[in-house]
Amino acid sequence: MTTAQTKTKRVPTKVGISTKKKVGTKAKAVKAEKAEGKVVLRIRVRAYESKILDASVKQIIDTATRYDASIVGPVPLPTEIKKYTVNRSSFVYKNAREQFEIRVHKRLIDIINPNTKTVEALTNLSLPSGVDIDVKMM
Q1: By three-state DSSP, how is residue 100 classified?
Q2: Is the pTM of this model over 0.85?
Q3: Spatial CA neighbour of 108 closest among 136, 77, 79
Q4: When you count CB atoms within 10 A of the terminal residue's CB, does the N or C end of the chain come out lower?
């Protein structure tokens, strides 16, 4: 009975050790990929109207593909909803209220290893008003 108990105790520890080694090798592989020199241009686009946002994202993707850049996305991010409640009347009908909301739609685009021509074309791109762009180099 004691030998069976020791066998069951040793098996989980061996499994735990082997999984730790696998996690460590994955982390080293990710660091090796970053060390290779992959440059990622992360573009985050925000707008109040989804149709205008989709049109501007399509314009960004067309510009990037024209200069042979590899693209990941567009990835739709969660819509940010801000709700406001306002009193309709200030005196007698104070319980009557109106509710308003503002929706902010977001998309994420990654351009992997962009050329100088690609970056220059994206900076000269004219997009409609109401579209906000954040660009990060990673």
Answers
A1: strand
A2: no
A3: 77
A4: N
Domain residue extents for the chain: 39-137
Q: 120 φ, ψ to 5°?
A: -65, -40
Tens of pLDDT, residues 19-53: 444 444 444 444 444 546 688 899 999 999 999 99
Quote the mean pLDDT of the chain.
79
Is CATH 3.40.50.300 the right assignment for the domain spanning 39-137? no
CB 48: neighbour CB atoms within 10 A?
13
Picking from 46, 54, 52, 57, the residue whose alpha carbon sits closest to that of residue 79 is: 46
Q: What does the alpha-carbon distance between residue 120 and residue 117 come to, in Å, rounded to a whole number?
A: 5
